[in-house]
Amino acid sequence: MNHIAVHAAAKPAPVETAALTLMLGDRVLLDRANLRVERGQVLAVTGGAGSGKTALLGTLAGQLPAGVDMAGDARVDGHLLIAQGGRLAPRRPLALQVAEVVGHHLGLDLRSSLRRMADGLDRMGVPAAARRFDLPPEQLPESLRWACLFAMAVAVGPAVLLADAPAAGLDPTVRLRLLHRLADWARADGVALVLAGRPEDGVAGVADHVLTLRRGRLLPPNPPRTEPLTPLEPPGTARLHGRGVGMSYPLAAGPGGKSRSLTVLHGIDLDLRTGETLALLGETGSAKATLARSLLCLPPPTAGAVVWMGRDLMATAAPPAAGEARGDDPDRGGLRRARRDLQPLFPDPASSFDPAMTLGDQFGLVLESLRPDIPADRRDHRIDEVLEEAGLRPEAALRWPSALSVAEAAHAGLARAILSEPRVLIADEPAASLSAEERETFLDTLMTVRDRRRLSLVLATERYDEGLRDAHRGIVMLAGRVVESADAETLRTAPLHPYSRAMRAASRGERPALEGDAPSAFAQPAGCPLRRRCPLAREFCAQAIPALEEVAPGHHVACHYWDTPAEG
Amino acid sequence: MPRPVIRRLIDAMPTAVLPMAAGVGLSALVAPQPDAAMALLRGLVVTLLLTLPSLAVGTALGTLAGSWAAVAPRSAGGLIGRLLAGAGPLLPGFLLAAVAALAVRAGASAAPLGWTALSIPAACQAARLARPAMDRALGAGPEGGAVRMARGLGLDERTVLRHHALPQAVAPVMGGLRAAVLAAMVGAVALESLLDLPGAGALMVDSARAGSAAGAVPVLVALGGLTALLNALGLGVRDWIDPANHSSTPYDGP
Amino acid sequence: MAEYDQPPLSHPLPPEPPRAGFARGLSGAAVLAALALACAAAPLMADGSAVHRLDADPVAAALLDGRGSLSFALLAAVLGGGLGIGWALLAGLLGTLAGSRAERRTIAAAHRMAGWPLALLVPLAGGLVGPVWLLALVTALTAAPAVAALAHAELSTLMRAEFLTAARAAGLPEGEVLRRHLIPNLTRPLLAAGVLALPRVLAAESFASLLGLGLPPALGSWGASVGLAARLGDPVAFAPPALLLALALWAACAIADGVQAGQRKS
């Protein structure tokens, strides 16, 4: 980087602001910021939702968003802005749009534009077989669309590239791979690259400098918490057992009227002990959410058994046989008792509340159903208690779900889950809708509640380090199978499976050693589902799905070559 | 003719041509008049000639005016677009047909008036759908992403409007073509009956007035077929305008 | 512990969404109510000579006609909305009892019928069948498929809602889920879909009457007066019923739009 600075000293930096101030109405988005990005330098600006990142990038690109007032100076050399969401005209073939942009900037015809674009795709690591230029962007996979956008920027070769929430919404391993390639290009070609994104999106990992936009100031970021909030207590005995839990969905009948089905979860075995926190780690298509719901029998899995305190939940969740009509029994087979003990946290808390009832009414309904032992006049008191425990005020009981902010809805979801005094919380990406401080606050609250009530917790998440931080044990899932399971410390320090290693690298902002994209659930390769992306893959990987084997006490890995170094 | 249009027409054969043929055959068999089948065939052609041009012109103009109303609401074109979008439900085709009949009684010529009367509802409908869609495409919401991106990539405003915003305004209009076709059919029947044009709608109304089910039902069946034909044409045009519909999406039924 | 003394900074209050649809719906309802009142009060204006419609002042005559048009439209809209909602519920019921295939077929039939020029059935029925109630039924049928398609879309969105899963996680039996969550949340979208029938039946009836094949002359109808005046070439008799009809149609459409917009927002 030093030699760049030497060169840069001769010319002014491509991005320079002096006392740049942005106001949205009377709210200060940015307060007198002095920003300077040199050639070949990568700057990441992080911040929670609505903190003004988009306004800042729009201003740098000379497109002041509506309603935002600007003061101070901002000078940006020939720039390109990749706007939030990365949407192109949804229905025009991609080739035309690329040619239009490249041709507009460089004055090239269609053929030369596409050739430059192909070079750009090479630098983004998109294999030639995946290049489908004649399709409109809305029919391309998300990851390919982002790769094409980055390649378009590479083809144009601007002095400054501004990217707003680049590759947001992609799986961490795919996102970090693309971002690292983009940063490599910027450093090699001397482009000033400014990335904006939410702190948990990992843009910070690829950057040379990171600034956090907080309350109008650009500050150095707070390092995220890496240790458990309070020292973890050792877990007790196993209470919840999953045996061969599997889930498959029927598909339309194939040729010849053969009935087909799609199996997304392949016989998972799992035990959860009292007071234990288990992190289910996996990306899109890993079926971690399906597993979480199967444990709750919402809906019951199609194979295997879920046993809670010695009682098979699937037998009780199944509708009663026609012969024995016991519909009037309020606690048929003890399912309601199990529901009281096992409570879910939903990925989108706001939509998990009935919009036609106040929070208090819904909580009352839960108590009426799950805790008939609490008299009706004590319910309000109980509701106030859990709301305060979950970090809300008791008055929240009077509010309507539509009046809650995203963060409040998440806390209210937690309050509802602990209302019946459960013993297990099964949380599927409970903080997916939150970012930055709100996310940390929510997770801290969740852990405080867990510790106070000595709850068992199943935490399904795609964020490796964050999930393992407060966990006793972790399970890494890929395409409906467990690929590695160990205690959290081992997984954090020395994971063995290449997929675990890639997820760990991605969660730390490092370059994951996986190529390409995850295959679709309908087109899984034969053998190991990771083999087309894996650095360790050999011919044998295509022939057999690796079985889970114990490599150390309590540490299981499903990989044929976990102990061999990568070839070449 | 562009290939997507032909494909849609072939797909629509059973629902469009069969009812028309059945209507003609039925009227040859059961209708009281001897030349009913020929009259019905002629009538179908007249109805098609009335509806098709007015639909095409009305929809095209309405879409442009509606989109322009979102781009420049205070310009002349924008004012027309706002007017059309706001007046939509005020001006159903049959009421305009009655106005046209009144004007013809007062001495105006029938054909241009008839086409105008039928194209105005189509234009209103198109403007009503195009304007909010264009507003969203240019706005700050998620639908505006493509336009923001195009501006961020440094394209000039004309290209942005033409290629990134306008298609988003055209898409809902194309989706609403079915309703426009229905309105045009109703308007055409009223127009033919009031202006005494030799169309299929007039045949049906005359038979219904005479209380002859044998005369009216075959015409109704044939008119249903004609509607299906116009719908198929609309779908074909949609596919032709919008490349996303004929690149790799499988056929999803009429 | 998180305390929300003030809204967290990262969530600025969103700007108040434009309530254009709501305002339009309200003005539509006001216009329709005013029309209905004026029509009801019309006999008072015609100084007791309501029977001689042709001699009366054209405005008073048009208002008298409005009684027939509006009351028939209301009757047919209630019928049509009910039929459409029933159709959608039947499809949903079939879906739970007989599988999604039956549900898809039931609702695909509604979609296909909505693409057919059903409004042409009304003049046909006016010419071929006698009683008014049968005509009302046919008119209602022209609106029902569109209502059914919309109501079914709302229904299937609701059936997938996450809060139903949350209710099941709270151990509520299916009957309770239906009673406590599904029905309260279903009423509004279904009624909103039902309102869609009003402009359609008003237009269909006016169209048929315009051709002289709608309501019997004794009842009076805007469409019939417009058609008669157009045939006679009488602009003075033409204008009042035509304007009132256009106004009523606009109001009915505005109500339907407003209810839809309000529905989508909440």
From TrEMBL, chain A:
Comp. bias (Pro residues): 220-234
BP GO annotations: peptide transport
InterPro entries: AAA+_ATPase (IPR003593), ABC_Ni/Peptide_Import (IPR050388), ABC_transporter-like_ATP-bd (IPR003439), Oligopep_ABC_C (IPR013563), P-loop_NTPase (IPR027417)
Gene Ontology, cellular component aspect: plasma membrane
SMART domains hit by this protein: AAA (SM00382)
ABC transporter domain ranges (all copies): 15-240, 240-504
Protein localization: Cell inner membrane
Major location category of this protein: membrane
NCBIfam families given in the database record: oligo_HPY (TIGR01727)
Family stated for the protein in its record: Belongs to the ABC transporter superfamily.
Name of this protein: ATP-binding cassette domain-containing protein
Organism name: Azospirillum lipoferum
Taxonomic lineage from the root: Bacteria, Pseudomonadati, Pseudomonadota, Alphaproteobacteria, Rhodospirillales
Automatic annotation (TrEMBL), chain B:
Residues annotated as domain ABC transmembrane type-1: 44-232
Compartment(s) of residence: Cell membrane
Pfam families, per the entry: BPD_transp_1 (PF00528)
Signal sequence, renumbered to the chain: none
Gene Ontology CC terms: plasma membrane
UniProt keyword annotations, A-Z: Cell membrane, Membrane, Transmembrane, Transmembrane helix, Transport
Listed PANTHER family: INNER MEMBRANE ABC TRANSPORTER (PTHR30465), OLIGOPEPTIDE TRANSPORT SYSTEM PERMEASE PROTEIN APPB (PTHR30465:SF0)
Protein name as annotated: ABC transporter permease subunit
Lineage: Bacteria, Pseudomonadati, Pseudomonadota, Alphaproteobacteria, Rhodospirillales
TrEMBL record, chain C:
UniProt keywords, alphabetically: Cell membrane, Membrane, Peptide transport, Protein transport, Transmembrane, Transmembrane helix, Transport
Pfam short name (any one): BPD_transp_1
Broad class of the protein's primary localization: membrane
Transmembrane domains' residue ranges: 21-46, 72-97, 109-126, 235-256
One annotated GO biological process: transmembrane transport
Domain ABC transmembrane type-1: 66-256
One GO cellular component term noted in the UniProt record for this chain: plasma membrane
Name recorded for this polypeptide: ABC transporter permease subunit
Species whose genome carries this gene: Azospirillum lipoferum
Top-level taxonomy: Bacteria, Pseudomonadati, Pseudomonadota, Alphaproteobacteria, Rhodospirillales
